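quick one: heme C bound model?
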Amino acid sequence: MRLEWKNSLRVAALACIASLAIPVAAGDDGVRYPEGFRLFDHVKSMIIEAGHPLFEAVGGLHHLYANKRAMDGYAAIEAANGTVRFKDRSVIVFDLLQDVRGGNAIVEGARKAVIVMEKDDKAYADTGGWGFQVFDPANRTPLLDKAAQAQCFACHQAAASTDFVFSRLRP
Ligand code: HEC
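yep, here:
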């Protein structure tokens, strides 16, 4: 990873936490809580530890899930010769949990946030066709306002050639 990119990751990540602290009115930006996402397809998992540029924003253990349309998008990345576009109504969920360490194991703890990207080229034209949102796991309240959503997109722009999606499907 290039150093400038690392630094911009850090700045964006910090802006991100600041925004997480300011709840906004429910349901005002259009991204819906992804009901039933635990039955979506599993994409990959990762543990982010202290020292990683994303630690402040999303430290802990996360699993990524995708609905069927988003799975088509991931398959397109694998097959791509050019720029990939995910279809409208693709949904990717970043399920963030605490990483609990002990007994020489790392296990899943309490859910910290349900983080979502939902595709709708018209509705979210300002942010690459993706609606970005973070839900409070306790009451499913959306936590991000427009400014915070722009911060999410600012970092995801680094993945422009794969339609702003960073992750790859683990076969
Ligand atoms: C500083 C950079 C950065 C910021 C800011 C950021 N993300 Fe991400 N995001 C990433 C990276 C890197 C991954 C890939 C994680 C992985 O591979 O497990 C990712 C993955 C995701 C995914 C899974 C799809 C994908 O692109 O792989 C979702 C959903 C997501 N982020 C939503 C958000 C939301 C919502 C926000 C704003 C609160 C946000 N992100 C802010 C860097 C960022």
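Residues 1-12, 14-19, 21-27 have pLDDT under 50 and may be disordered.
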